[in-house]
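Issue 218. Parser rejects a valid record. Input:
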Amino acid sequence: MRYSIEGEPLPVVICDVENGEMLKCESGSMAWMTPNMKMETKGGGMGKILGRAFSGESIFLNNFTAEGGPGTIALASNVPGSIRAFEISPGHDIVAQKNAFLACEAGVDLDIFFQKKFGTGIFGGEGFIMQRLSGQGIAFVEFDGHCKEYDLAAGQSMIVDTGYLAAMDSTCSIDVRTVPGIKNALFGGEGLFNTVITGPGHIWLHTMPVSHLAGALLPYIPSKS
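Output the parser choked on:
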């Protein structure tokens, strides 16, 4: 497969695939394609269906396969931001926020990732369930707004406001901590909890989580009343 990512901050990834090559794509992500790209909707078993439902993703994935020769398919992001390509391989899994998955090659597995600590899942800003991309192949993930990357050494941490963690290497760990001080927690505008990511591993942070974007736009949406 050959691909190019174009059009930021309203990005699209254009994939040129060989005859018989297949991509697994998030439902509704296809923007355009050549006529020989054949679609098949699959759930991947009851366990994966339930996991995707819990993680907030579409229950089914669309498999697009080139038939009768090479094909082209373009996959567009849902919100302004960026699309990143990840080389997934054994021992190099990626854990991403829910709704981040866009598409992947056939050898990549998409599973749910449970936070091991209950408090992290409830208060960490990413919810109790995230997504794990494992296996072998290229996966495309969409981030909201600008994406900033950091390498964390073993034991090195980054404190992140809830929702701003886009993805991380599976070698990283997540915890939560309360904002110190009653006045800070109540009047600081940063909420009661922050997410703490600890290395070793790479992390990707985005600047405008879609939930924050929705909250910023809500006052400007006319109500029926």
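Fixed in the parser; the record now loads. The radius of gyration is 19 Å.
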